[in-house]
What does this fold into?
Amino acid sequence: MLEIKNVTKIYDGNVLALDDVSFNIKQGEFLAIIGLSGSGKSTLLRCINRLVEPTKGDIIMDDINITNASQDELRRIRRKIGMIFQHFNLVERSKVMTNVLAGRLGYTNPAMSLVNRFSKNDVEMALKQLERVGIKDQAYKRADELSGGQQQRVSIARAMMQNPKLILADEPVASLDPVLAHSIMQYLEKINKEDGVTVICSLHFLDLVHRYANRAIALNAGKLMFDGSPKDIDDEKFKEIYGKEAERVG
Amino acid sequence: MKTKRPLLKSIGVGLAVALGVIIFAYAFQVTDVNFETTRSEVRMTGLTRVLRALAKPELFTRDTTEVDIQTPFYLPCPESGQMEEIETGGNEPYLLTSVPCASAKEMITVEGYNFPPNSSGPINFLTASGVSKQLANFDSDSDGYFNVEVEVPNRQPVEEAQHIVATIRTTSGPLKWTDTAKATWEKIIETVFIALLATAIGTIVSIPVSFLAAKNLMKDSTSTPTNVALAILSWPAGIWVGLKFTKWAINVLDPLSEQILVALAGSILFAGIAYLLVRKGLPAEDIAKPTRKTRIIRNVFLFGSAVAGLLAIIFFGSFAKLAGDIITEPLGVFGFLGNALFLLGDITLMLAPAMIAVAVGGVFASIVGKFGQSLNDKLSSSSLKVANLIFTSLAGAVLFALIMAGINWFYQINDPKIVLYYPLAIGGIVGFLLALAVRPKHPLPTGLIIYTIIRTLLNTTRSIEPLVMAIVAVIWVGIGPFAGSLALALHTIASLSKLYSEQVESIDDGPLEAIQATGANRLQTIVYAVIPQIIPPYISFTMYRWDINVRMSTIIGFVGGGGIGFLLQQNINLLNYRAASVQMLAIAIVVASMDYISSKIRESIV
Ligand SMILES: Nc1ncnc2c1ncn2[C@@H]1O[C@H](COP(=O)(O)OP(=O)(O)OP(=O)(O)O)[C@@H](O)[C@H]1O
Ligand SMILES: [Mg+2]
It folds into this structure.
């Protein structure tokens, strides 16, 4: 469903963040991206929905080339791609409900959003999504009154409002404790298994990769170093991905 | 190396100190600092007098009654020696002079008996022809007696008796506000409302401007050369069409909207039509990509709605003017409500052409922009290049001609060669060369260009003092509070936009990114990710500005901008310090209480 072809990204400080990366993803996969800090994981994820403009290469989703889509097309593409962030990126002063409903913005008419109106269907759907992640009772609290784990669940609900085909998760559990981390990963797994949503998720912990992903790719200094099953990351591969001095933990 | 450091450093410090001394010495020189004057006797008494007057603001008064006590006096002594007898004794107050007659400039003593104890008042010389001149003031002692030495004035010598008059002034009745206090009250209210109006207008305008002046919102917006060229061509065309159309519509509707009922019905009817058409033309959701046919139908609906909206606005303007006029009289004290309605209608009709022109310009630009986009998508690179060359040359020509027209308005060159043909030619060539140089799909940083232009405008406007702006406004709309409000509003726009946009720049990008990632467009991103983050600082800056505007509006009257400043300046010029003191007191109270209220409100929000 998604083809990444020779994508290169050079930031304006002449930083080569992605170096000729190519791979394909099939519908329904749970793909983990691993690599050292600064290896280009976030850049890769952001290139897919063009929050970052790739310098070279093509990204093609369901036969539509994302890289040269017009603003109107980009809007239609983005609304099919949910995104989850390390720091949740909720609008903290707004209500949980408003944050979740914001997931529908790609579908609503901009003129309606000016007066802050969503259809009844959207409101019902938002409540259902909140129920699914177990925080329906928090719907009318301000987002910043919630704990980290709850906030990340709100952002999953927001992504699900988009009715997405693909979810991009950029280190979704890096700022949560291990117990919460598993609960968030389980929600992603559920979305992947039950709704058939493809998930691309960057992760720092290999045990999470082994437990949840059915495929992994590894980046080192912007280069694709590994593409295969998480089981195949042996000690030698590990040293290639993380460098000679790296020690395996967990 | 290490040993030299302290030496170099101390030389540096020494030089800095010497420089500091020189700078301040020069400052004393140019600012005319002169301690001699501050010690001079004359200036000290002057200062004391003013300070004492300022300490006694002329706030309250009582009714005073005046009783004149007079005694005949001869100037000069009559040759016949015949003079009026003076009655003395008894309980009634009477005056005695040391001599019954004297010539001009002689000193005489005036004594008063049986006056009310501790009373005071003026002593006047009243000529035979009825002109009086004040000689001195008296203060009676606890027995009702006083004596004052006065100089006989230099007056026309006449035979008959003239008079020396002592006026006993007694105050009675309850304390009343003085006329000064009443005028001050009226003006301080005016002052507060000048500040309110200026702040309100400034805030409303500044909010959208601040988004355009925020780098983080603008830096990502780019356009292809084709689109930029088409925008430069379509905006002026759209604005021109909009202006013409509105003028025409106002003229056509004018006779119709003379009847208040027709105007009311027209505004309601067309507003309704506009609303219905908008509902038809703007679906709440766009799930699937609309077909060409539905898009055309929608655009027709939207166009119809725009026209209906325009008619509704014009009818409403006429209605508000008429209705305001009619209800002002019967409302009596609340007549200002009618006046406000009238002004609302007037301003609607005044701004309608401009607003509609901008709207039509925007519509033109977006239609042409879509066209440019489809050219970008469909044409091959080389044919796009050719199209670009044509559009950009045209745009360059139009832009240069427009700029030159602006310059011509100021300098009145009026030579068609310089004003029209050369700019057209040069602009065309510049555009052509630019299009040759730039790749046809290269994104141009239009957002940053708009950002830079707006920032520059704001910085220039902000550096002009409101007092100077008020002088210009007074020339435009005449002396009065309206001029002051205009000047303050303009300054408020400039400074609030800057403060606001800095707040926008300092918001957390995380939510911005997240909202963009959902497919939200620019407007939606602003509404959902930017506005919630900036509400508290916006309110706090608005309050802060309101505070400044109250201060500014107290002195904007110095240059004719209305408010209390006018009274204050007048009284200072008339050396009427006790009245000026009332105005200063009022300013202090208003400023201090605004300060307090705004800090309370800010505290409760942030
Ligand atoms: N906006 C930017 N401008 C310039 N350079 C950037 C920008 N964003 C990232 N980079 C650089 O690009 C490289 C890749 O960064 P990226 O954020 O993609 O890494 P990452 O793998 O997500 O790291 P982490 O695990 O720390 O999140 C880094 O060297 C980073 O410094
Ligand atoms: Mg990252």
Summary: Chain B touches chain A at residues 278, 282-287, 289, 373, 376-377, 510-511, 513-521, 523-524, 527-529, 532-533, 535-536 (CB under 8 Å). Residues 383 and 543 of chain B are 56 Å apart (CA to CA). Chain B has a mean pLDDT of 88. The pocket of magnesium ion (ligand 2) is lined by residues A 41-42, 170-171 (CB under 6 Å).
